[in-house]
Specification:
Layout (H helix, E strand, L loop, with lengths): L2 H12 L3 H37 L5 E6 L19 H5 L1 H4 L3 E16 L2 E10 L1 H6 L13 H5 L4 E4 L1 H8 L8 E4 L2 E8 L16 E5 H8 L6 E6 L5 H16 L9 E5 H44 L1 H9 L4 H36 L3 H4 L6 H27 L3 H6 L1
Parallel strand pairs: 3-7, 4-6
Antiparallel strand pairs: 1-8, 1-9, 2-3, 2-5, 2-8, 4-7, 5-6
Length: 409
Amino acid sequence: MNPLELVSDLFASLRTQKVRAISTILGILWGTLSVVLLLAFGTSLRDHMRQQAKNLGDGISIVWPGTTTMPFDGYGEGRALRIEPAHVLGLEEAVPELDLICPEFSNWEVLRAGSNVFRVGVSGIYPQFQALRTLIPAEGSRLIHDADVRERRRVAVLGERLARNLFGNERAVGETFTLRGAPFLVVGVLRAKRQTSDYGGHDRDRAFLPATTHGEVFGRRTVSNFVFRAKSPALHEAATTGVYEALGRQLGFDPRDRDALGVWDTNEEQQMVATAFLGMNLIFGLAGAFTLIVGGIGVGNLMFVLVRQRTREIGIRMAVGARPAWILTEVLGQTALLVAIGGAAGFALSFVVAAGTNALGLENEIGHVVISPTVAGWTIGLLSLIALLAGYFPARRAARLDPVAALAD
């Protein structure tokens, strides 16, 4: 039987079982819709959360000076560590696993621009800090340069919301604000981004100064914290151990004393989030798959009914020479066609729902919903398996019919 005859024969049979056929196709449609949308929404939300986590910094660790809890080399326990910039900057050579490392000075201060006054977090940084912390300038802006640090320039880069609060709708680059009575020139505004985590406030509400300028204005010699990233995720644990050992030699504390430094490992946090979303997507996938399986059972039942209805026809065809393999292939093909109709309708409706969700402007909450090739591939694979299982048993029954008994039915 050629494909056109296969299709026409199927629809001729379905006309005698209209209600059952419609409900079966709707079952496959609903199952496909469930699998595709549950996995698409779960994947989009996972990618959205992952990107927001990376907006703090991709694969970084933030380290704060702590208090020793173990005696070491003549020093008693309970000693608060004081870390200077030179201690941190020297770690890049002392720890070969490190990719980047940078100290940070931070405090809360009042910024004034005309009648606008805000108390915000102010950080003193070096240029490499901006790469570690994913600070990206908006169009027409720049970040802190080496020359700013070297010459102790009174310049600043502002978070996008802080810039808007200080200067309204005017262009902030080129404007000035005062900090402790000293004027500062705004040379950059950060590109807007969303963060799921932070320390000391989101970047959109912070001001960033050259580290040397910060020290000159506030008189600070010791760092508030420092940030580092290993050359690869596989080297992160070795890099952390190297930081403890190198600083332990410089500052006189036991490298095994993990309380001497407070370390926030964002790699570990991102791994926990990835594991949680993997579990969630597995649950979503199973829920959708079971829905689709129920639809597949409906397809199998319908095909049994159609085979039973066509018993005499099949008997005549076998009596005049049709082979059992031909009958088996025909019933399997019709089952696949029936599943394909429901599956195609489910995919089409899924794309409509995804596009409608994106049009609602919910990207900041759930991300951009995309039906990825992976999700589509898994769904098509599941539909193919269901079509095979739903069609095989009715097809086997049809192929095993005795022509004499079928004609006498």
